[in-house]
Amino acid sequence: xxxxPPTQPPVKLGIAEWSVPMAGPAACQLVAQAGLxxxxxxxxxxxxxxxxxxxxxxxxxxxxxxxxxxxxxxxxANELCVDGLDVAPDSAGGRRARATMATAIxxxxxxxxxLVQFPCFEGSFVSTPEQRSNMADGLRFAxxxxxxxxxxxxxxxxxxxEETDELFDRVDADNLAVFFDMQNYLLNRGFDQVAHLDAxxxxxxxxxxxxxxxxxxxxxxxxxxxxRVAEQIALLVGRGYEGWISLENFYATGPLAHHNPxxxxxxxxxxxxxxxxxxxxxxxxxx
Length: 287
Known about the structure:
By secondary structure, the chain is α/β, with parallel strands linked by helices. About 40% of the residues lie in helices and about 15% in strands. An eight-stranded parallel beta barrel has the order 1-2-3-4-5-6-7-8, surrounded by five helices.
């Protein structure tokens, strides 16, 4: 009798809403056409009143996802890249950040999702000990709120392995996780992406896949740049990862916009590349 190889757990493939070259619920149809399984949505900016906090907006996304046959992956609060977790919680910016987190958690619950992503980039980059302490305070606040809804709070940052361990010790919450990006650690701090993923794997809830060359953000189709995306996906699949891998390359702006005058074509090319990387990893893991 020939032994049956172990079944590899499923990996779902999505894309961040801010990467899709079409805004709003209509993005769901493009996601389906590209052969992806889901769309990660954004809370939206505070200056627009956090659009996803409104029932009418949420209902439009949920209906569009159903019509397109895809899922909504999770909700991100990219507003935290404007007013974020780097500042003291009792400062004006800190209070705005807590309002954003509370609104994002409520919207995540209303959408029926179980994970909210809180990034720390751009204007709210976290690096110093004081900033890391402020981030821990903010995430502790968020985890307490999110626990009431059974929601995981996933922090996206570029902390070192040791700094990440320190953060988790400070927050001390069962519903805190890492949202792992496949290029950011290399791009921002020169870290080895594969070694970082290996060390943080048990904390990883969801991932973003993007790639690049020569230190340029989102400048290559996944698997063709310097970030060793194929190795990261092989590590995930080999370790039994069952979560989402969502594309976060930018097809209508930056270097990838020069590849093709129609950014949707580049998005579809990237989606195909991602699926091929996952399928290859699954075959290798099953051998």
